[in-house]
Amino acid sequence: MTATVVEVEIPPDEFALHQSLAALDDLNFEIERVVAHDDDQVMPFVWISSEKSSHEEIQAALEDDPTVEDIELLTDLDDEWLYRMGWVDQIDALIQILVKEDGTILAAMGNDNCWNFRIVFPERDSLSRTYDYCENHGLTLDILNIYQLEDGRKGRFGLTEDQQDTLTLAYEHGYYQVPRKATADDLSEELGISHQAVSERLRRGHGSLVENALILGEGADSSK
Fold this sequence. Notes:
The protein has 224 residues and is α+β, with helices and mostly antiparallel strands. It has helices at residues 18-23, 55-64, 92-100, 124-136, 161-172, 184-191, 195-214; strands at 4-10, 27-36, 42-50, 68-76, 80-87, 104-110, 115-121, 142-148. It is built from seven helices and eight strands; from the N terminus they run E-H-E-E-H-E-E-H-E-E-H-E-H-H-H. An eight-stranded antiparallel beta sheet has the order 4-5-3-2-6-7-1-8. Strand 6 (104-110) and strand 7 form a beta hairpin.
């Protein structure tokens, strides 16, 4: 059995917080953690940021949103806020993923254009059942990217084995310290490959880390 990682897109009007996004179209959401308590509710920790809306406006929009209950402000950083919420409506697809198919949300971001999720399913069939469920219930689940977790090496960050080995060696030898304790030439000698090959592995590895740890949606380049 091989786990499958998938990046999907859901329209904002088919998901939680749609009313808040409609009221304040400059909101950006990033899910820190999400847990399904039962078949009717999920409890996410959500970072909210906005360039124009005040905290008071955001709070009011959340309190008026029928998809949300039991909101609690956990952190106030002036320009972004961490909330714990209870989502109770427009979360059928999420319940299917978390409860029915034992999926795990690795990353999730949303705005008035779309919600993007990176999800790990325990097996490929779990993804297929989730897709069929959404299609049969009139829900949109656009699949943007899929890859298998091969022997645990590529992991959630999409690294090849060579990239992971080179990045790990660079870290252990102090390549990323300031000042550096190792150079690309030192790494190439240790690995028995050329300076150019080391630089290429590091560059591609860094790109994969940024894409799979920080970037979701149109910014991700799945062609690497």
